[in-house]
Specification:
Rossmann fold; four-stranded antiparallel beta sheet; 10 strands; globular
Length: 264
């Protein structure tokens, strides 16, 4: 299957006051159309940098990033992004926060159509009836749902999720995992998610990529064998425990420590 996202031997170094800081050193990644990839790795290894390269917000020093057969050389309106901090505008209602991307990328779309699209998404994630509320009137989980709607309202081909549930409590996070499955089913997209939660990665993704320590390379790839809709009970099966154990081992290798190899 042809890749919608194709990252080829990407290298990137930041210029800092303290000198050059190599971050990525030959990262390869391919995501088929409709696929969902989770990227995990040690803190500071360049996971968020990778998402900004996909979105066209950064350019690599070497290598190439391709979306749908076109080389990425700048920001792409076909990419939606959601972050750990929802960054909703307090002076706008929830509905007006969600329609904001349409005001930027589709200014000629009638207001009625923008509102209809936003209301459709808000209903999908369980926020019907909260359209006129301000962000401060919502819980953290509700704000993250609204942020997800905003990232999808212009029907992007690619959705980038940078630790979107990392600041939430465990129960809210698991609830949103299930919401994500519903959204992915009804609003198809090709997804790349950055996460530190290994359970989250195997529950949501088709494939998990482990990045090495900085400067990062693509260290390990795990295909998730589960197909179709998943329920939380899957995370307590022997199969899930085995996958989590292997991913944890790979993270330890990326951190430069591996109890298994040391005989622990």
């Amino acid at each position: 299957m042809d890749a919608l996202i194709d990252i080829r031997d990407v290298k990137l170094t930041y210029e800092t006051k303290g000198g050059r800081l190599p971050v990525l050193d030959g990262v390869d990644m391919r995501v088929p159309e409709g696929g969902f990839v989770a990227v995990v790795g040690p803190s500071g290894c360049g996971k968020s940098t990778l998402t900004r390269l996909i979105a066209g917000l950064l350019e690599p020093n070497a290598g190439e990033v391709w979306l749908h057969g076109e080389r990425v050389t700048g920001p792409k309106s076909s990419v939606g992004m959601a972050f750990q901090n929802p960054v909703l505008l307090e002076w706008r209602s929830v509905l007006r926060n969600v329609t904001l991307p349409l005001e930027l990328v589709a200014p000629r779309m009638p207001k009625r159509e923008k509102d209809e699209r936003a209301r459709q998404l808000l209903a999908l994630v369980g926020l019907e009836g909260f359209e006129d509320k301000r962000p401060s009137e919502l819980s953290g989980g509700m704000r993250q749902r609204a942020s997800l709607c905003r990232s999808l309202v212009h029907k992007p081909e690619v959705l980038i999720l940078d630790e979107p549930f990392g600041a939430l409590d465990a129960f809210t996070r698991e609830d949103l995992w299930q919401t994500m499955q519903k959204v992915k089913s009804e609003e198809p997209f090709t997804g790349v998610m950055i996460t530190h939660d290994l359970r989250e990665s195997i529950f949501l993704a088709d494939e998990v990529i482990v990045m090495s320590g900085r400067p990062a390379v693509t260290q390990y790839t795990m295909e998730i064998p589960w197909k179709g809709e998943r329920d939380l009970d899957r995370l307590y099966t022997p199969e899930a425990i085995e996958m989590l154990g292997e991913l944890r081992h790979q993270i330890q290798i990326a951190q430069g420590r591996s109890p298994r190899e040391a005989g622990v």
